[in-house]
Amino acid sequence: MIRLWSAVSGVALLALFILVVYQEVTPEWKTYQRSFNGMEEERLRSDFARAEERLRRPEARAELAALERERSRLRARLESPEVQRRRQESLAALRELEDRFEKAQDRLEKLRADYQGLERDYILAAEGPALVALRKKLEAARVAVAQITAKRDEARRQADEQAARVAAFTAEINAVEQKLGQVTAERRKLAADLAKIRGRPLEIKQVLLDGGTQADRCTTCHAGETRDLFNSGPATRRRHPVFYLEDHPLERFGCALCHGGQPRATTMRAAHGRVAHWSAPLIPNPYLGGACGKCHRDEELRFEPALADGRKLFSEAGCNACHDVEGLRPVEKVGPDLSRVGDKVYRHWLARWLKNPRDYLPRTRMPNFVLGEQEIASLGAFLASLRAPAPGPEVRLPSDERAIAAGKKIFSDARCISCHSVEGRGGTLAPELSRIAGKVQPGWLLEFLQQPKRHAANSKMPRYRFREQDARALAAYMLNRFQDAEWPQRATAGQPEAGGDPAQGRALVHNYGCYGCHDIPGFEKAAKVGAELNSYADKGVERLDFGTLKGIPKDWFAWTRTKLKSPRVFRETLKMPDYGFSEEEVTALAVFLRSLSDEGVPAGYRAPQKPASTYVPEGAFGRLVEDLNCLVCHSIRGRGGTLAPDLTYEGSRVRREWLAGFLKNPQTLRLYMQERMPKFYLSEDEIETIVVYMKQVLVNGSIPERAFAPSELTPTLASEGRRLYHEKFACQACHQLGLEGGAIGPELTNIGQRLTEGWLVAWLKGSAKLVPNVKEPQYNMSDEEARAVAAFLIAGAGERRLRAAR
Amino acid sequence: MSRRWRIIFLAAALALPAAWWLRPAGSRAVPGGEAKAQPAIRTSRLVQAGARLYAEVCVYCHGAAGDGFGLNSPNLAQPPRDHTDAAYMSSLSDDNLLAVIKFGGAARGKSPLMPGWGGRFSDRELAALAAHVRTLSGRPR
In sequence order, what are the beta bridge partners of B128? Predict the structure, then answer.
């Protein structure tokens, strides 16, 4: 019995041993590579069969047979004794001629050497009979050289002729053989390729990055990545989209730098990084853009919109108010200054706001902190205590119909809804105004309309030059018109709200880090409350706290998504507020967060970051730019907003008279846009300051004010321009001229009064060179075309006069 | 040593390597490591990029939905093409579509009011635009 057991277990152990050894010597990657080679071979074999098939068709066979017959006929003829004899004779003659040429060449070289010797002697010889003799000798040598040169050339010519005669014997047969080769070329090439595959060893393939310290072995299994064989099928044989490889050649970037995973490994599970303690598993498709952001840290990549969106949202939502991220441009506090919020809003409004800001204003950036009743009361008490040291006199606003009507006119003239919205209609830069009467106190509103920055230094509101009574009328109109149905102003104004402990409120501000987004007195130097996120993407899953949450995959992506969607779901004590991000926003943010990685980025691979613009407008103009907050909408030399046109070259662009007129009374140039330049009620002096600065400083040296001499603006040129405008470039599709044309680009009627001639010509030749990210198509007009179209536009209304005069 | 012990020992000697060899595939991995609960964002990156470009310049005439009723369409003498018209769009070859976007309508005998975007966008961007336009008529790319 024991013997039987020993025999059975011995055999079983041996079998197991063999199996284990077999498994070790046939690794996974060999299977993939073999399968790829097999498929490639199969493909070649079928191509080969098809080529054979083609050759086997009757007409191909007939052609082949005819060629082969021709070849044997020619070969037989060549090998006949008569032809052979003649060929041998020919060859002998050729050898003789070559011989003659060689001899002449030798002789020539010798004579040339002699000649050079004589020439040197002649140059060095003194005057006298010896010199005469030398000259004669030299003359004779020159004649000899000329003669032998002629002889050599003749020999060469004859040898070449003879060579052609020799070649003629085999010319026909060679042509036939070449044709035969062409007919079977495809088959031969395929046969060679097949032989190559059969001889191809199974081996680990690798790309070495960063001076050989990082091995990337992904192409060992993903054999099809760079070969143009299969466009579909499993990832191991599919070809990589060419698109990314063009700029990122495999030999320099490998695979894992972008896709993640453990590139050194050679089994699928390990290589894809789905093993314990490997912090960078394969990045799933929606987040792949994050890998681009590892090197392209501040570029907006056209082909990775999610990365650009995520990066923008991260700043705009104020994420780095609490979380430090190295290399991110510092942004101003995203929320309003609360230094005097007690003077600004009613306390009942504060309570309502803190409960859930989005209930009051759906598009606000302020997240929901999910505060309890007691917390809201205490925070309200603390915030209401933030007031000016000495309260001003109580403000009485006019309430008569006339003042309110005047306020209404100012509200519309000043174009408040360019930035503010009323019942959801209007701009998105500034707060909604439709229920403002239930929120702000009259005294604050009046002061804010006149001196926006007195309350909040970072306010984006421009300082309008309102007269005292106009500001009062405007405030009266707003508080009268924009009532809050739920909180009638009269019922609550001045009523102190009960409860709440300011000291506890202060502690809450500290706890939640409100000062990250708001300026709050006493917290100027407080540290950010959130975790710093440098290299956040490299955080291993062991370092992510899943807390009490069950039922989500234990990986970085699931954790990040969950955190962004419901920040406090892991533990009750977490502080991060609820932003209510949509699915797309969560994805975009996760893509951006995935880019916060140093994993595997070799030195020198990172795209250099552009230095931030250091432009600061100078002097009186600078003070106006600050006061009017021009750079909220406009940009100058890389600083400022993107809502309104870039002003870097405004002085070269527009004419002085137009600029002055526009600043006095802005008229919109783009009818379809909701946002329009507000009317600031600037004084003559202020307008002059702006115009002078723009015309002197904000200019492009290569653009002249005038581009045409008066005699150059001829009707012929203008009518050529008219043809180009309408027929070749079809500008009327987007621009209005007179009463005709589209309404997307600026209106062009009387454009000669707005733009300088030089700008118009330069713009037509290539507007993208003048203004980055200009929307219109780029036709790159020639100088002549641009001048003709410009002449037509400048003539504009004048053209009719030109025609009438003819 | 009793016979029973010997059998148990032999069985263990057999079972241990067998267990190692037959170990479940997931035991070396992080529990639940295969991330399955990813959102279903399957649109290709090319189409996504194309959609942005479309929103940037094309929508003014062709409309946000691509149906040809853009803001500017009433101003045009020839109505903009309806990109959701599957019958028409499928009759258009990729080359033709790309050529119209790159060189303008006039280059292919279509409305000259359609400008050529070759000077404004790179070939990649044009390919992305074409890919997005294809999706508007429901033809998945």
Answer: none
Structure tokens at A660: 């002055």
- Nearest alpha carbon to residue A788 among A742, A726, A739: A726
Helices vs. strands in chain B: H and E counts, helices first: 6, 0
- 10-residue averages of pLDDT along chain A (806 residues): 90 94 84 86 89 88 89 89 90 92 92 88 83 88 91 92 90 89 86 87 86 84 77 76 82 89 88 84 88 88 89 91 82 86 89 90 90 91 88 82 92 89 86 90 91 84 91 93 73 57 92 92 88 89 87 90 92 89 94 89 83 87 92 90 89 94 83 77 94 94 89 88 90 86 85 91 92 87 93 70 44
Q: Is A424 left (phi over 0), alpha (psi -120 to 50) or beta?
A: left
Interface test with A, best of B22, B38, B78 (most A CBs within 10 A): B38
Model confidence, pTM: 0.77
Cα angle A547, A549, A553 (rounded to 5 degrees) comes to 105
Instruction: Write out chain A residues lying below 8 Å of B120, CB-based.
Output: 768, 776-778
Residue in chain B closest to A17 (alpha carbons) equals B17
Tell me what ipTM this predicted complex has.
Answer: 0.72
Which B positions 53-92 lie with beta carbon below 8 A of chain A? 53, 56-57, 60-61, 71-72, 75-76
Q: DSSP H helical segments within A618-738, as ranges?
A: 619-628, 630-633, 650-653, 656-664, 684-696, 715-723
Q: Looking at this protein, which amino acid is placed at residue A54?
A: R
Q: In this complex, which of A305, A553, A672 lies closest to B52 when CB atoms are compared? A: A305
Chain-chain contact of A553 with B37 (C-beta, under 8 angstroms)? yes
Burial label, A100 (beta-carbon count in 10 A; 0-12, 13-18, 19+): middle
